[in-house]
Amino acid sequence: MKEKNIDTTEKLTPDEQSDDKRQQSRQPEPAAGALGMGSVSESDDAPVGSLSLRQIVGGDYLMLLVRNHAWLIVLIVLITTIYVGFRYQCQQDMIEIDQLEKNLTDAKYKALSSSSNLTELCRQSHVLQVLRANQDSLLRVSDQPPYKIEVPE
Fold first, then answer.
1. In this structure, is residue 116 part of a structural domain?
2. Nearest Cα to 56, choosing from 33, 35, 74, 34?
3. Which of 10, 47, 50, 59 lies most in the core, judged by the most C-beta atoms within 10 Å?
4. Is the distance from CB of 37 to CB of 29 less than 8 angstroms?
5. pLDDT per position as a tens digit, 33-60
6. Does residue 11 fall inside a structural domain?
7. Contacts of 146 (CB under 8 A, 6+ apart)
8. For the segment 71-125, what is each residue's pLDDT rounded down to a tens digit?
9. Which helix (H) or strand (E) holds 97?
10. Residue 117's domain spans which residues?
11. DSSP 52-95
């Protein structure tokens, strides 16, 4: 069997040829040290996987992270602000509800004691005591039982 040596550049389009030449012209960078120290000629286009300590400490990595995720950070801040605001409003409402419940309980007790006092003052025995205390009154307890008066229509 004979193998044919085919030049791949002949079958590629001009765009693909230029991409192929660019890939061939790239030289791998020398390996960084154990601490991740890169060479002096670092570029901003460096892939994310080749981070150096200088980039991290210098803030380049953080700036890149913030720039790429700015909308996410804004969304998180917005949601957190809304959450804190709703929680604060809920706590204020709960405090107000507790205060109103205490006021309602106090009003119920006052109404109950007023009703009790009024019932006591309206009893027949109490009215008789007041009549006996005021001897100038013409009102007296009847000796005869009450009877119905019928009115014809």
1. yes
2. 35
3. 50
4. no
5. 444 444 444 455 555 567 788 877 888 8
6. no
7. none
8. 999 999 999 999 999 999 999 999 999 999 999 999 999 999 999 999 988 888 8
9. helix 70-122
10. 70-131
11. -HHHHHHTHHHHHHHHHTHHHHHHHHHHHHHHHHHHHHHHHHHH
Q: What is the residue type of 30?
A: P
| Residue 106 CB-half CA count within 13 A | 6
131 within 8 A of 139, measured Cβ to Cβ: yes
**CA 118, 124, 126: angle at the middle one, nearest 5?**
65
> Both tokens of residue 40?
């002096």
**CA separation for the pair 139, 128 (Å, rounded):** 9
- CB within 8 Å of 37: residues ≥ 6 apart: 52, 53, 54
Question: Would 19 be classed as within a structural domain?
Answer: no
